[in-house]
């Protein structure tokens, strides 16, 4: 008689083979994934809400989990993401200003020049400033690049400092909510909107420059975002109102350039955040994103159309062939 140690009879036959890890066949294991049931060694298992899952199931679960997004569809990032686009725009504006200041030999009068009262042509102390400033006569003669280039020029250091401070304050949060590509699209549509409005409504001899149109567009964008998120838009609306009052009362400020940028930026943001998303399945989110981009493109085409109509009118008025 034998005693196997547990009080029962000795087992007969060959014991069943021990399971081996699905990813490491050379490793025997008694563990398994609580999701797929495959045997797995301790190195291939990860803690899960219920039991342990193999690394393959963990990866599949991450792919299947919808990524958290903002109301504009931008992916939400952990930590403190850097607003690269805002900083890049500020850097570009500063670089353009420094170039014009060096050419003009002045930080405060980099946009100084002389206008011929008979022809309306202007000669600026900075050749770059003269090449890019929004001049309706030059745009009518085919220099369309001025409608964008003028948005990176500023009349003096104070003009630059105020605009860049506001862009730094408002741009960072707006970029985080819209996402980098949408933020840049809204910025440049606003810039074009400001140029279009200035061309359409300012006097023929007005020379316009500055990022104010684009920055007003970012103000409008932030107001729309706050309303969409059901938060108080009072502070940003107050800032917009104060700036409109300043534009009306201080000579030399382009009210129409500001208003055009404000409307274009608010409209571009609205088509992004109010695009229908259904139940927010991946397909519906992708469709909403496409609709948003299509809306921005439509606004851009509309703005360019306004510029084109103004150019045609100026060419007829000035008998330019």
From TrEMBL:
Pfam families linked to this entry: Rhomboid
Coiled coil stretches, renumbered: none
Main localization category: membrane
GO terms under biological process: proteolysis
Cellular compartments annotated: Membrane
Stored SUPFAM superfamilies: B-box zinc-binding domain, Rhomboid-like
Biased composition (Gly residues): 1-10
Molecular function in Gene Ontology: serine-type endopeptidase activity
InterPro entries: Peptidase_S54_rhomboid_dom, Rhomboid-like_sf, Rhomboid_protease_S54
Positions of transmembrane segments: 84-104, 152-171, 183-201, 207-227, 234-253, 259-279, 291-312
Family of the protein in this entry: Belongs to the peptidase S54 family.
Protein name stated in the entry: Rhomboid family intramembrane serine protease
Source organism of this protein record: Rhodococcus spongiicola
